[in-house]
Amino acid sequence: MATTDLPFGIDFGGSGIKGAPVDLERGDFAAERERTPTPQPSTPEAVAGVLAELLGRFPESQGPVGVTVPGVVQHGVVRSAANIDRAWLGTDADALFTQATGRDVHVVNDADAAGLAEVRYGAAQGRKGLVIVTTLGTGIGSALVHDGVLVPNSELGHLEIDGHNAEKRAANSVREKEDLSWEAWAKRLTTYYRTLEKLFSPDLIVVGGGVSKKAPNFLPLLGLDTEIVPATLRNKAGIVGAALYAVEGAEQEALQRTGA
């Protein structure tokens, strides 16, 4: 694939917007990643302007563009906005970004993008059956991937467990805020992941987020029947997964819409 044909991945977060062209054969950046601050307020129109500027830094890249969004995304339309400007609710982000950039743009939930990347290139590469990828950060993001196919918008961080929203008890931000020991946090994580086991009987659980770098401190403490491993792509996962979705996920959605 020529450099000009490579897809471009963009990871839209609360503090920064990062992007790079991606070589899908290697599952890695094809050029140095660029970062720009997230505009405040981060309205759809403001973010669209930043994306156009960011893409302009890579004039040689003309392939499809994938963009992560920290919210539920249905057929390109943003349906939730827990940690971004509420103006996103109901926004057809695919259409907005495509018009703003002049490129073929496809939007995907941020955890789903990370899940796709980990299954194709990372900790779950080559694994069959149901893989659940979770990201432990400010909240708990999740992705369900079965035999390589994404089941989008699982939002398993919002499961109610023992009367609590799961991420309000077990996210890494809660560990830091409450100054929990690794042992105390592991007990909460065990409760969370055992619930996922009961509901889904997964073949593998992958743990991502920045705290995955410290996996030896807590993963061995979890009492689970399912194999659980740390993510390997880490901060590359969003960009790589977004680019992958721009090519393959969009094709799947088009087939679903046409009933093929």
Protein architecture, described:
With 260 residues, the chain is an alpha/beta fold. The chain has two domains: 3-112 and 236-258, 2-Layer Sandwich (Nucleotidyltransferase, domain 5), CATH 3.30.420.40; 125-232, 2-Layer Sandwich (Nucleotidyltransferase, domain 5), CATH 3.30.420. It has helices spanning 44-56, 93-101, 110-121, 166-170, 172-177, 182-200, 237-258, and strands spanning 8-12, 16-23, 28-29, 34-37, 65-69, 73-74, 77-78, 105-109, 130-136, 140-146, 149-151, 160-161, 164-165, 204-208, 228-230. Strands 1, 2, 3, 4, 5 and 8 form a six-stranded mixed sheet that branches. A five-stranded mixed sheet has the order 11-10-9-14-15. The protein starts with 7 loop residues before the first strand and ends with a helix. The relative contact order is 0.16.
Question: Key features?
Answer:
260 residues, 24% strand, Nucleotidyltransferase, domain 5, six-stranded mixed beta sheet, 7 helices, 15 strands, globular, alpha/beta
Number of strands: 15
The CATH homologous superfamily of the largest domain is named ATPase, nucleotide binding domain
Stretches where pLDDT falls below 50 for ≥5 residues?
none
* Helix percentage: 25-40%
Mean pLDDT: 93
Distance between the termini: 27 Å
For the largest beta-sheet, the strand count, sense and barrel status come to: 6 strands, mixed
CATH architecture of the largest domain: 2-Layer Sandwich
